[in-house]
């Protein structure tokens, strides 16, 4: 996404996990080959290895949640392995593999969130207090990154609007601003001035209380791993992924439109609204299609899908924008 690249090994020289996994498998099969040729007992071992499904990774703790939300898509979820190793979380580095690799020191417990601004109830709340009155729900959503790749992720979370109501926003509250934690000792990417840290995002309040917008605490039946935004992140499925801010420590009710990180960094490339829109190209690439991530070295060329307006959620959210020129308010 950024024009700036920190001084580091070019990503072309780093072998993506899927590539080295395949390379390892290839090497293994080459090592086994002589035994196979000799017709020895390694035969059945090799067959068993080939037939065994790849184990899905585990992280955090299991979470239970209600399933079958009418808001969930029936599309097949992306493999958990891909969703947890191909990430954008620049506080941990700008390569897709960095967040899973460099977030080992990140502490997501204990966690608290500061609520501030135009609301009757403000202060600092523990994550437990934030979640206590809400039932956790599974929501299977498409995630469309502004970089033109996409996934389908089974999130677990709570409707953002139901949480915001508890703080009793005043009539002046027209926007909600979110801030990510900033911990230099645990987030190695903060050393580089890729963005004006901390990462900040915002929504208009009517967008924030739309039932599709959730605060996620988990995915694939488990708590969020650091690379996906532990312990609390936003998910706004009709907007480009950069709106879905991770590891939230502050929620502010504001009268004015808040400054947001990508918009501050390149105003003409990343708008405040950032609604998924196949008709408005990014200045450097088309948004008409997307690459659905599906293993195999993250299929750099295959699985091209047509991008849908509002990422396929137009029926639910289109009415929020009837008064807006979506070409100007990109
Ligand atoms: N939040 C923070 N704090 N820092 C980031 O770099 N990247 C955004 C968003 N939230 C980002 C962030 C972008 S560009 C995308 S596409 C999504 O997170 C990716 O979410 P995922 O890694 O869980 O798929």
Summed up:
The chain is α+β, with helices and mostly antiparallel strands.
Low-confidence residue ranges: 3-46
Number of helical regions: 9
Strand content: 15-25%
Order of helices and strands: HHHHEEHEEHEEHEEEEHEEH
Tally of strands: 12
Question: What structural class do helix, strand and pairing data support?
Answer: alpha+beta
Commentary on this structure:
This protein has 330 residues and is an alpha+beta fold. The protein has one domain (22-321): Sulfite Oxidase, Chain A, domain 2 (Alpha-Beta Complex), CATH 3.90.420.10. Helix content is 20%, strand content 20%. The protein is built from nine helices and twelve strands. The strands form two sheets. Strands 3, 4, 7, 8, 9, 11 and 12 form a seven-stranded mixed sheet that branches. Strands 2-1-10-5-6 form a five-stranded mixed sheet. A hairpin with a 4-residue loop joins strand 3 and strand 4 (149-159). The two termini are 16 Å apart. Ligand MTE is lined by residues 87-91, 143, 145, 180, 199, 228-229, 241-242, 244-246.
């Amino acid at each position: 996404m950024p024009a700036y690249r920190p001084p580091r090994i070019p990503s072309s020289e780093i072998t993506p996990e899927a590539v080295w996994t395949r390379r390892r498998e290839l090497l293994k099969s080459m090592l086994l080959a002589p035994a196979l040729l000799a017709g020895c007992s390694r035969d059945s071992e090799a067959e068993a290895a080939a037939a065994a499904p790849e184990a899905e990774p585990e992280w955090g703790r299991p979470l239970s949640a209600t399933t079958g939300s009418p808001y969930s898509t029936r599309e097949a979820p992306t493999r958990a392995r891909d969703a947890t190793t191909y990430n954008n979380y620049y506080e941990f580095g700008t390569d897709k593999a960095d967040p899973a690799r460099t977030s080992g020191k990140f502490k997501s417990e204990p966690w608290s969130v500061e609520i501030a601004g135009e609301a009757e109830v403000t202060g600092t709340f523990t994550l437990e207090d934030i979640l206590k009155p809400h039932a956790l729900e599974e929501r299977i959503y498409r995630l469309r990154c502004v970089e033109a790749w996409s996934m389908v992720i089974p999130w677990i979370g709570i409707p953002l609007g139901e949480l915001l109501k508890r703080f009793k926003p005043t009539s002046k509250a027209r926007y909600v601003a979110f801030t990510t934690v900033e911990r230099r000792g645990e987030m190695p990417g903060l050393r580089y001035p890729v963005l004006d840290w901390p990462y900040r995002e915002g929504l208009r309040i009517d967008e924030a209380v739309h039932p599709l917008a959730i605060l996620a605490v988990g995915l694939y039946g488990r708590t969020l791993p650091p690379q996906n935004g532990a312990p609390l992140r936003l998910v706004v499925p009709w907007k480009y992924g950069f709106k879905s801010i991770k590891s939230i420590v502050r929620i502010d009710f504001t009268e004015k439109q808040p400054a947001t990180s990508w918009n501050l960094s390149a105003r003409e490339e990343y708008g405040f609204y950032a609604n998924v829109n196949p008709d408005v190209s990014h200045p450097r690439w088309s948004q008409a299609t997307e690459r659905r991530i599906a293993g195999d070295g993250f299929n750099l060329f295959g699985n091209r899908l047509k991008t849908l307006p509002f990422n396929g959620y137009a029926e639910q959210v289109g009415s929020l924008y009837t008064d807006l020129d979506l070409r100007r308010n990109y």
